[in-house]
Design goal:
membrane; ferric-chelate reductase activity; 19 helices; transmembrane helix; 47% helix; six-stranded parallel beta sheet; alpha/beta; binds flavin-adenine dinucleotide; single chain
Length: 636
């Protein structure tokens, strides 16, 4: 601040108002209280995470020792723990979000909304509590504290943004799930920055000191620049802008953030230089996270993998990556996948549909073609076309038909071990199956070796056309076989939601006994509900027409689909294909009824499906076996 004009009475008044000797001590006191609150919440979440993991492990141990006491909670905690868990789940699970244009507006689940309101209330309490400075400096005090509360949130903003995430590590929540909190912390910072600026500007204006302050102090001009950067950071993360051009969004986001940091550093008053600690800490966290991530990225791509691309039905590409570096990931994890030939500098999140012990250790992805990278890999001439057939991991591997692939990750994945639940329900919509399939494969792989607690597995998959079932038929067959050997019941129910062939069949029509194929001497049946008999009459069945048309029009078809049950059906206890949408309430209720204890539900797909599952689970929670839900949708 320029002190040269100290004899001017207006300047004296301004100096008195700006004197922050006492204000900064009080403001810093509340800035520290903010961190105590944040640490308590992170600590409690970490403890909760540890408790549920221990419970899950103890279930697995008792299941391995004897299969009698499986999904029952430890005696000491008993009913009270169940009641608390149940009430908590009822509160946090529900989600009401617009189902149309979900890429433009997505309302988070109730649990997140409650958390965000608590956060906002906490920050506003810290802002306005004990604001008892009298006189003209009262509004200055409110403004100064708002400034401190803005920068004290900066370390949390960065902690929530990193991909190698410390908060994620201790709380067991993946960085992609923390992203919504990252955005809302930024919005709260914008709110407190607005209070900081608004209260002071209004005060100076009311005393006729506004012009003088702007002319003599460097704080207002640097502050307004920092505010502009913060405002743009918030506006550009709104889904409609963010989704316009994702790569551009990422680059400008990082550059804007650097701009914000520089302006904040210049803005912080020389009278309270120690406040810069709230800027140095996030810079340190950012550099640390970047270093770790770069090291891991370098390791992953030391000997880069090669990707084989296979075009499947329904505008989907199967990407099979052979890499010697990445050998460990948990079911449901995703990586940032980069195929430089199809988008230099681009990396796209893709869920690994395989597990380390399947597909000869290769990473398998199933990617729906959108407008950019995903459509380029789908349409490329080197992409093998297997419409109607089954793509296996033994696809050609010569360098002409394979592509250099760079991998960042893995990230995310299931939080708890689904093998520790008595009954497991896996629900997927379309490519959401990339999340539920590895969970199923993991259960199947461990079924024999570890004697998991799980006894029933139901695999629900909603697809647009019946042809989509070819994406994962060999995997389902394999999983069915392994689970059957271990005495675990697997039911596969496929719902064809918009298949012309099924258009005249009642939506959600239950499978009929007539449509089931039962082996002699074996009680297990495989069913296709819309068809009265199996094998179907090829003359009258519309599916036969589809096959004929395919034969005529698609020279690339390698294997003519036969009119019979998908071949994994013979290995599953019950397999049904039916038209319409799944009746989630009925399905989850049925699983609850079968289970001897808690059930585990995983859902992945469009917001419509995940939000409905959330609501149904919240409604059924406590009315039978307790339900653990893991909901995943491809976006943040
Ligand atoms: C955790 C996660 C896992 C996913 N797993 C799968 C999967 O297994 N199978 C699948 O088909 N899809 C998956 N997706 C979605 C997939 O990443 C996008 O569809 C893909 O990046 C679109 O690329 P594009 O260039 O063709 O997109 P565009 O047509 O340009 O855009 C389509 C949408 O994808 C978003 N998008 C584009 N590039 C990126 C990027 N680099 N990072 C994040 N979002 C981006 C855009 O904002 C837009 O909303 C996943 C997404 C996430 C967040």
């Amino acid at each position: 601040m320029d002190m040269s004009n100290g004899t001017d009475p207006r300047m004296d008044l301004l100096m008195t108002i700006l004197d922050d000797t006492e204000l900064q001590v009080i403001a810093n006191f509340y800035a520290r209280r903010y961190w105590y609150g944040v640490i308590v919440v992170i600590g409690l979440t970490a403890l909760l995470n540890m408790a549920v993991r221990l419970r899950s492990r103890s279930r697995m141990r008792s299941a391995a020792a004897s299969r009698v006491k499986q999904a029952t909670p430890p005696r000491c905690c008993g009913r009270m723990l169940d009641a608390i868990t149940s009430a908590f789940r009822k509160l946090i699970y529900p989600q009401i979000s617009p189902t149309r244009h979900s890429n433009l507006l997505k309302v988070p689940p109730l649990g997140i909304i409650v958390l965000l309101f608590i956060y906002l209330a906490f920050v506003l309490t810290l802002e306005f509590v004990n604001q008892d400075i009298p006189g003209d400096q009262h509004r200055q005090a409110i403004g100064v504290r708002a400034g401190w509360l803005t920068i004290t949130q900066l370390p949390l903003l960065i902690l929530l943004s990193g991909k190698v995430n410390i908060i994620g590590l201790i709380t067991g929540v993946g960085y992609e799930r923390l992203n919504v909190l990252h955005r809302w912390v930024a919005r709260t910072m914008l709110l407190t920055a607005t209070l900081h600026m608004g209260y002071q500007q209004a005060l100076w204006n009311s005393l006729g000191l506004l012009q003088l302050e702007w002319n003599t102090d460097t704080c207002p001009p640097t502050g307004i620049k920092a505010y502009a950067f913060l405002l743009w950071l918030n506006l550009s993360t709104l889904a409609p802008i963010r989704n316009l051009w994702y790569e551009f969004f990422v680059i400008q986001h990082i550059l804007t953030f650097f701009g914000l940091i520089i302006c904040i550093m210049l803005h912080l008053p020389s009278t309270a230089l120690f406040s810069r600690i709230y800027v140095w800490i996030p810079i340190g966290i950012y550099l640390f996270e970047r270093t770790l991530r770069t090291l891991r990225y370098a390791y992953n791509n030391l000997r880069p993998g090669r990707a084989t691309l296979i075009q499947l039905n329904g505008g989907v590409t199967k990407v099979i990556v052979s890499t010697r570096q990445l050998k460990n990931w948990s079911p449901g994890s995703f990586v940032l996948l980069s195929l430089p030939r199809f988008g230099l500098g681009q990396s796209h999140p893709a869920t690994v549909a395989s597990i380390p012990s399947s597909h000869e250790g290769k990473l398998v992805f199933i990617l729906r073609a959108h407008r950019g990278f995903t459509s380029r890999i789908h349409a490329n001439e080197s992409t093998i076309s297997l419409h109607g057939g089954s793509a296996s991991s033994e696809s050609p591997q010569d360098s002409k038909s394979t592509h250099l692939v760079l991998i960042d990750g893995p990230y995310g994945g299931t939080q708890l071990d689904f093998a520790s639940y008595n009954s497991v329900l896996l629900i997927a919509g379309s490519t959401g199956v990339t999340f539920t399939l590895p969970v199923l494969l993991d259960l199947a792989w461990r079924a024999e070796k570890q004697k998991p607690a799980v006894k029933h597995v139901t695999f629900i998959w909603a697809v647009k056309t019946s042809a989509c079932t070819s994406w994962i038929d060999s995997e389902l067959k394999h999983a069915g076989g392994e689970l059957q050997k271990a005495g675990i019941e697997l039911g596969v129910r496929i719902f064809v939601t918009a298949d012309e062939e099924f258009a005249e069949v009642d939506e959600g029509k239950p499978s009929s006994a007539e449509a089931c194929h039962c082996e002699k001497g074996n009680e297990e049946c495989s069913c296709i509900s819309p068809f009265p008999k199996l094998p179907p009459d090829t003359k009258s069945n519309p599916l036969a027409e589809q096959v004929k048309t395919q034969e005529r029009t698609n020279e690339a078809v390698e294997e003519t689909p036969r009119l019979e049950l998908p071949y994994y059906a013979s290995r599953c206890s019950v397999t049904t294909i039916q038209s319409g949408r799944p009746d989630l309430k009925g399905i989850i209720k049925e699983a609850q009824g079968k289970a001897d204890g808690e059930i585990g539900v995983a859902v992945c797909g469009p917001v419509e499906l995940t939000a409905e599952t959330r609501r149904v689970v919240a409604g059924l929670e406590g009315k039978g076996g307790s339900i653990y839900l893991h909901a995943e949708s491809f976006g943040w």
